[in-house]
Amino acid sequence: MKKGNVWALLPIGVFVALYLSLGIIFEYGMKISMGFYNVPIVVIFLVALLVACLQNRSLTFDKKIEVMGHGVGDKNMITMLLIFLLAGIFVGVVGRESAESVAYFVLSIVPPRFAVCVIFLVSCFVSTAMGTSVGTITLLTPIAVAIASTSGFSLALCVGTVIGGSMFGDNLSFVSDTTIAACGGQGCAMRDKFKTNFAVVLPAAILTILLILFLSLRADISPIVTKDYKLIRIVPYLLVLISGIAGINVFVTLMIGIVTGSIIMLSTGAVGFSGLIAGMGSGASGMFETAMVALLVSAICALIREAGGFEALLSGIRRVFRGKRAGQLGIGLLVGLMDIATANNTVAIVMANPIASEMAKDYGITKQKTASILDTFSCIFQGVLPYGAQMLVALSCVSTMGFELSAFSVIAHLFYPMLLLLSVLVFMFVIPEKKIEQ
């Protein structure tokens, strides 16, 4: 067994220090809007990679390149990159106006008193179909603001409900980059991870709905104005969702969504052929940074593993977390700390993946369970971060509509992430775990 070397973990420390310090300077020192997301994350990872290359002098530079090549060339990594690109093309094809159609259709047939429940359910559906929490928040926050301003519901409640619902789909969607990263990194089928994940999130979602209903019944409500909608545009989303749950190969599932989306968008005149191709290109381009981060992290982790960094980290974790259930919590806290450091749940999962995989082997945790824990905890932490993209985008949308809202007033209404944390802890430590074959 390779000897542990805590200094091999230095590249991770360098990344965290640089990313956090620059993010704080940009956001709070220079007052740059969404400062953490203006940090050049690829450049920071390149610096961390340079630090990793300068370590372990027992290896020549050519040998280190070979080690990195093995890490980057892993089957799971290639699969993850291809899925990233196809998911980007899918979103680029179908566009995002379809999400508004879902929201306004449901609001048109539901009594105003249940509007916040509706916006939560719509946020859950849209984020699951689209695979992006930020995209869902961008689309639905203006609707949430309209509901609050015309109905009498609290603005913080409406916005917090959208953020919570968006994290539901970010956690579960077959085309979410967090799901792709977690399943790709652990080498498990998305369908298996979905089944494990769904059992945990369903109680949290139901409790969230009940809590919102309780608050809604106490509010003084006025009628809500809705807009026109085109339901045919949600068909590709539904097909992707149904195909994924049915266990159809993820590549086939995404191709079904791309083809049907292309046909519908062209036949309805929503976009021309050149616009469709441009949408495909922009969708794929939108995944480039995520794909590059995944490659760089794989290279860094390969060098860290070779130098004994993972052995040192795992040794420390074993001393603190004893037993299978505690090991699951250790994986959750690992990815949570990564998310606090990076404010990006996909990056957090990619960074935690190789360590979590080793922990899963040590503690006898199944691949689908590990992927579920990584995705769930990363979404819990990301959903409540006051400097996370989800919160910043929501507050930006509120501001552009002429309203003011603080992050901490919204955090108080983030019922779903909080209840999801409670649910996952109950499943870890209270409910007897069924034996699942590897």
Q: What does it look like?
A:
This protein has 438 residues and is an all-alpha fold. It has one domain (6-429). The protein is built from 21 helices and no strands. It is globular and about 70 Å long. The protein starts with 9 loop residues before the first helix and ends in a 9-residue tail after the last helix. The model has no long low-confidence stretch (mean pLDDT 82).
Unreliable residue stretches? none
Gross morphology:
globular
Largest sheet: none
Radius of gyration: 22 Å
- Strand fraction band? under 5%
Helix coverage percent? over 70%
Number of helices: 21
What is the strand tally? 0
Protein topology:
Layout: H1 10-29, H2 41-54, H3 61-72, H4 75-94, H5 97-109, H6 115-130, H7 133-151, H8 155-172, H9 177-186, H10 190-217, H11 235-245, H12 250-267, H13 273-285, H14 288-306, H15 309-320, H16 324-342, H17 345-363, H18 367-384, H19 389-400, H20 407-411, H21 415-429
Helix pairs in contact: 1-2, 2-14, 3-14, 4-9, 4-12, 4-13, 4-14, 5-6, 5-7, 6-7, 6-8, 6-10, 6-11, 7-8, 7-19, 8-10, 8-18, 9-17, 9-18, 10-18, 10-21, 11-12, 14-17, 16-17, 16-18, 17-18, 18-21
